[in-house]
Q: What sequence folds into this?
């Protein structure tokens, strides 16, 4: 389940939530990236388990009886649920999923294929590392219309 703009409308969309519940019964894994976790939660798929989402919406997981965690990727293999935090964590989740479905060599080959070797120029990729000035600017950008 992808996240991002438009996710909020899906939290009340009975047709989508029913479809998610139905399809989860037959999936090998049901996954989400970013705020897609909130949709999984609204469908009742995260009750009582840890889950992650974008830091700006993390506390909303509690609304669906999920247990928020700041891990980049959360795997519940026995329940066939995997959640990834923000966009770049979706790549991490894809690598974890590849290891589960194939093996670690396939995951490493995929990482090499996409040349995924994160070396960000700033250490601001987590809320806990971001100075108040940076968080304030992000809030300003996000709320601008």
A:
């Amino acid at each position: 389940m992808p996240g991002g703009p438009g996710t909020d409308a899906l939290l009340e969309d009975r047709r989508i939530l029913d479809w998610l519940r139905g399809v989860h019964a037959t999936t090998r894994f049901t996954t989400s990236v970013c705020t897609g976790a909130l949709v999984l939660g609204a469908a009742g798929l995260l009750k009582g388990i840890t889950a992650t989402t974008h830091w700006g919406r993390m506390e909303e997981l509690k609304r669906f009886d999920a247990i928020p965690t700041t891990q980049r990727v959360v795997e519940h293999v026995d329940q066939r649920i995997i959640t990834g935090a923000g966009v770049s964590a979706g790549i991490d989740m894809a690598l974890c999923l590849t290891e589960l479905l194939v093996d670690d060599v396939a995951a490493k080959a995929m990482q090499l294929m996409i040349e995924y070797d994160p070396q960000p120029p700033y250490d601001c990729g987590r809320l806990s590392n971001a100075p108040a000035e940076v968080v304030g600017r992000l809030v300003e950008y996000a709320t601008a219309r």
